[in-house]
Write a sequence for this structure.
């Protein structure tokens, strides 16, 4: 890689990810007949350690469809006094600017768009203190396609720092399995980290093992929060892992996709424990420990930039049965009756929509013939085809919250005016079963009758 260094200091606040930009050709008579295509570039903000820390690699994603000579130019004057930037040999350097073509490793996606990642190695200069910031200005363009400058922020962090290395997806896990969830970090600061704090969130159905140096508490959505303090000095640039991983059992409540999140921090700077959680110790005969793996590195790759990681389990089958609950009411013509309808989860699996942000259960309610809904619950609405010209009579009711606990019943009340003789019964129907069709589809519908 070629290194570019400039000599001016800046200080701004840490920014969120820089917005992607897509640029197209400026309209002109000549361009009207030929489409020059498009090109876009995206570079996120990056935090780097102070001088003496391993370099960080930022990855700029360059994308193009139908463009000739797609490329990106960089103005590095905003890094003066803060950091140096090194680029691959196939880039061209001119004073404080750099021009890079589409990376030779770029590949097309399913839509024919060419995508490549350009690695930029960033290293703090001596004297750049904690919180010092600079900017990288970049412009994506191509022949006949003009662009405009975007910026990404580079921030210096002095002191110990750690990065989580876990981003793992697992298929085929089943109820009763005992898994070894990896816990792996790299020491990314300019100073050693003394002791490590690991914070984990286990969703309902995944059961963490007991360790002497961990504390356990109940989190939201029936989750379990675990905070562990692992002793030892973490040398800058060195990778560490928990031998054998963190033992995790797939319990009977697990069904569908599950994600265990983990975050890491030097124990001295980790801050307060998660708010609103009461922690206790569990009886245990072992402790979490770290061991160094390999020799310290001088450069950290673009794929490792965050103190947060995840362990994602796909499609746990589990066993569960959600039952539709109908109702029966008696009244006279012209009178009003109330019916309570809904769902019950007979378990043992717990539908969990917290990953997708979706509701864990939903149903539709169609009132009996000869009745009219005069009162409906909050959170339910009429559901039908607006373009058909017919007034919908079916109601859609999602269960609030992200989980549907085993043994839980969800009921809502509708007021029905009896307009005439009893007709065909109404119906409660489990709608779009989540996360899959349950184990007894026969009870996914139930009648609602008024006599």
């Amino acid at each position: 890689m070629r290194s570019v260094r400039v000599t001016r200091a800046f200080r701004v606040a840490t920014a969120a990810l820089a917005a992607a930009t897509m640029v197209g050709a400026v309209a002109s008579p000549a361009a009207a007949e030929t489409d020059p295509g498009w090109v876009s570039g995206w570079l996120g903000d990056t935090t780097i350690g102070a001088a003496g820390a391993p370099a960080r690699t930022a990855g700029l994603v360059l994308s193009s469809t139908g463009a000739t000579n797609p490329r990106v130019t960089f103005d590095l004057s905003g890094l003066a006094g803060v950091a140096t930037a090194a680029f691959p040999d196939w880039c061209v350097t001119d004073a404080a600017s750099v021009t890079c073509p589409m990376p030779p490793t770029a590949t097309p996606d399913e839509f024919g768009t060419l995508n490549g990642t350009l690695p930029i190695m960033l290293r703090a200069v001596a004297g750049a203190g904690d919180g010092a910031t600079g900017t990288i200005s970049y412009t994506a363009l191509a022949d006949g396609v003009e662009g405009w400058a975007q910026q990404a922020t580079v921030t210096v962090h002095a002191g110990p720092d750690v990065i989580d290395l876990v981003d793992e997806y697992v298929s085929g896990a089943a109820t009763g399995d005992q898994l070894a969830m990896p816990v792996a970090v790299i020491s990314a600061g300019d100073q050693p980290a003394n002791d490590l704090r690991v914070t984990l969130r286990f969703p309902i159905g995944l059961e963490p093992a007991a360790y002497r140096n961990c504390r356990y508490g109940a989190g939201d959505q029936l989750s379990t929060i675990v905070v562990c303090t692992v002793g030892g000095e973490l040398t800058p640039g060195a990778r560490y892992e928990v031998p054998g991983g963190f033992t995790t059992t797939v319990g009977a409540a697990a069904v569908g996709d599950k994600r265990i999140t983990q975050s890491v921090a030097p124990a001295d700077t980790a801050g307060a424990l998660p708010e609103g959680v009461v922690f206790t110790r569990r009886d245990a005969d072992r402790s979490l420990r770290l061991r160094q793996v390999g020799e310290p590195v001088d450069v950290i790759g673009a794929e490792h930039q965050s103190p947060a990681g995840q362990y994602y389990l796909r499609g746990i089958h589990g066993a569960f049965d959600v039952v539709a609950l109908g109702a029966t009411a008696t009244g006279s013509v012209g009178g009003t009756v109330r019916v309570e309808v809904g769902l019950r989860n007979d378990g043992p699996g717990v539908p969990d929509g917290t990953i997708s942000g979706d509701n864990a259960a939903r149903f539709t309610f169609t009132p009996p013939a000869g009745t009219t809904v005069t009162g409906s619950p909050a959170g339910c609405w009429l559901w039908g085809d607006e373009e058909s010209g017919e007034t919908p009579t079916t109601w859609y009711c999602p269960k609030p919250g992200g989980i549907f606990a085993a043994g839980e019943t969800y009921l809502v009340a509708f007021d029905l005016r009896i307009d005439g003789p009893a007709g065909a019964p109404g119906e409660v129907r489990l709608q779009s079963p989540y996360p899959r069709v349950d184990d007894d589809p026969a009870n996914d519908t139930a009648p609602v009758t008024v006599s």
